[in-house]
Amino acid sequence: MSELGLGENDRLFILTGAGISAESGLATFRGSGGLWNGYRVEQVATPEAWEADPELVWRFYSMRRRDAMAAEPNAAHRALAALEQKSGDRLYLCTQNVDDLHERGGSQRVHHMHGSLFESRCVRCQERFTDRAFYEKAAALPVCATCGAPVRPHIVWFGEIPLNMEEIYAHLATSTHVLVVGTSGSVYPAAGFVQIANQRGLKTIYVGPEEPLNAEAFDTIFLGNATEVLPSFLR
Ligand code: BV8
Ligand code: ZN
Fold it and tell me: Where, by residue number, does substrate bind (predicted)?
């Protein structure tokens, strides 16, 4: 039985946020004083921002994609991958992050509820673009090779509906434990998952260096950096 208190038949729902990538050098949303190169994330991560200035939004995500490509996964990403190895399909990893460090840290199944920096879609015919070559040449605002319409980041902006919510709720309904790592609990519906877990009597655990806004909803809080705390769950 690890510090997580997982038994043989327990099922673990994991939610991660920007904090798990902080030690890989990727800025968090609120750690940077909520500003990205002078922009509030709510200003550039909205459909209105895209309508008003698609080039600015495309540049904002191209900068974040470059940062993500230059970053390396850390011991926290690798610990969750090792936990997946041990638990198989009894572990469901949902991330709010749009970087690919969980995958590069070894996790096989990752649900990006807010989309990914490495996926874009045509605003008209919805064609998806995921190959890296697309990004290398698409410095300026790309257009769809099929229909000529603009291509947008496949990212869930504020006011948009997170991806595969029914899949997330289904896993919350069948889990016995919820582990939340490195998220301030400031954005919904992600910040509300722990309340759903409480209503179902699940064991709820938080890991991070400071209490999240929804701290009162957790049974246990391990205060510390993810790279220090998560590997201890494997022992
Ligand atoms: C929706 C992709 C309907 C973009 C993101 C008023 C009240 C309540 C809600 C609302 C409201 N007005 C509007 C809303 C809804 C809104 C919302 O919640 N707004 C907030 C600002 C109030 N939500 C939405 O619009 C969502 N859609 O509601 O649709 C719906 C609802 C239910 C069901 C169906 C439909 C869509 C929101 C998605 C927006 N996109 N990301 C991009 O990346 O550019 S959000 C983005 O910010 C993240 O993905 C994440 O979700 C969120 C918060 O970021 P965090 O990951 O928590 O990072 P943060 O910096 O905040 O915190 C970092 C944490 O790490 C800290 O706690 C820190 O202590 C910790 N940390 C630091 N170092 C470490 C560490 N932890 C561990 N180790 C370390 N070393
Ligand atoms: Zn198209």
Answer: 61, 64
